[in-house]
Amino acid sequence: MPEKTQPLQAYKERRLFPPFLMSRRSIARSLNFSGKQSCDLLTRKPMKIRSLLILVAASLIATSGFAQLTATDVTQIIGHAVTRAVAISPNSVIAVTDREGNVLAVWVVRGGNASLAEIATAVSKAGTAAYLSSNQNAFTSRTAGFIIQQHFPPGVSNTAPGPLVGVGLSNLFFSDINTFRGPGSVIVFSPTPGAIMPPVYPQIKPVIGASLDGSPGGVPLYKNGQLVGGLGVTGDGVPGPIVGFRAENPFIFISGSDTDEDVALAGQNGYVPSSGILATNVFINGIRVPYVNSSTVFSQTISLHGNADSRYPIRAAPAPFAYPVATFGGVSGQIRQPIINDPVVGTINGQPRLTAQEVTSILSYAASQTSITRAAIRLPIGVPMNAFITVVNNPNMGMSGVAPTVLGTFRTGEATLFSWDVAVQKARTVIFYSSHDFLNFGLNVALSVRTVGFLSQCNYPPGINGNSPGLFNGQQEMVSGLLGNHCDPNAITPNTSFTPNPILPNGITIFPGSFGLYRNGVLIGAIGVSGDGVDQDDLAAAAGTHDFLAPFSIRADQFFYRGARLPYAKFPRDP
Fold first, then answer.
1. pLDDT tens digits along 176-205
2. What homologous superfamily is domain 16-56+322-565 in, according to CATH?
3. Considering the entire predicted model, what is its pTM?
């Protein structure tokens, strides 16, 4: 049952500075994440929007000056990789993507066309390296595998799960937001830019079976110091396949050297990141994360043994889509999905629905917080975080098959691209789980995505070996088209009769960075933030809830489940 608390009186005075200029401790107090005091900021007058919105259709982010992969670049990258593969792994399939996830080539060293599972694996590895990296951090698919396991660091018993546990089930090939895509795809500026169903089909040509991947063999590609894409290799058969899904199991962590990674490193020759931004310079909870654990041999000559898969010929990166630019909360970036009013007609349980102006204010508060929050993954140490920030509505239609609509998405700076789909996943996850009494508390508790993740692990409470699974364990896999769960990755199989859940059309996320948005105690939407460490994401998302706080009495951290207090939010110790 909720703890009894006394109301906080300190918020009767007017403030000279908005909360996003407050210290972390002050924000924690205002949002009452200490659990000692409560307050209701919903009665305060809404903040005047201080951000200057530059939203002119013709005023778009300039594409000049941004490095792009040419067809010659792609041919050279594949040539180096093929030359190495012929020597050590002649069954290799090699994929190259650009930074946005467009597949620029799939090469089959043995000749002929690759299987769908091989293509999905190679593209997933390449896309993972591209999507998790930026101009300030270079991550690989091995890096991803290190931070998604049930213990962090992997293999150490009785430690908490990895910070991005479950991220392998994001950017799913059926996502209506963002995924890796083949030739012929057309980008649209809409609330569902990745949709592959009517009325916009066939705008996006998804790579069937692809998503993020934690198996070694994916490395980022840089040109003139800028991230331009990723290279992925499959062919060594390690770890073993998930038949009908991937040529290699993307959920099993490999700590030693790897042949696919060797081939990928050869292909990266001439397109390597600066040593100063490698993953090995990043520490998470004091743990150094890996970049690669393999070496390679470069050849002076290039071989193009084999051929391009007929469905994915070598091509140059397409011109970047010209997203509108804007400045929110003093932070410049791209509007990736249009800012709109909640399209549902009428009120929600008697409360007005979110307006475009309110969405802009929410984005502004969160964006401003990113500018004063030190990044956990970006280098050099001390630079501010970048993130995707999204707001969704609450359709309030139960299990009727209506997904939360994206009301606006803002990308600060050059936030990592995997974060787009994840930010929306997070917000939709909160709407779904906060709209039902799955915990049998007799009311709909305000669950954050941190709460959902806490209830989704193989052990409950998480990290303690021998404990039984959490209540939501396996649900992420279920809505991602898989049978089984990550507790036994060797037992995961594809659901051959799967159709995407219309309520969760891009799946769910089980790591932090999202909260519900409440008006007078009614859930009217959610904010999702992704792009940096999970505590940093939590802090920025919490800032966005400024005028739309969940009532203290229904917040998850006021409840216990199976003897453990549920978590709601956690901020960086030194933001």
1. 999 999 999 999 999 999 876 555 556 899
2. Haem-degrading domain (3.30.450.150)
3. 0.90
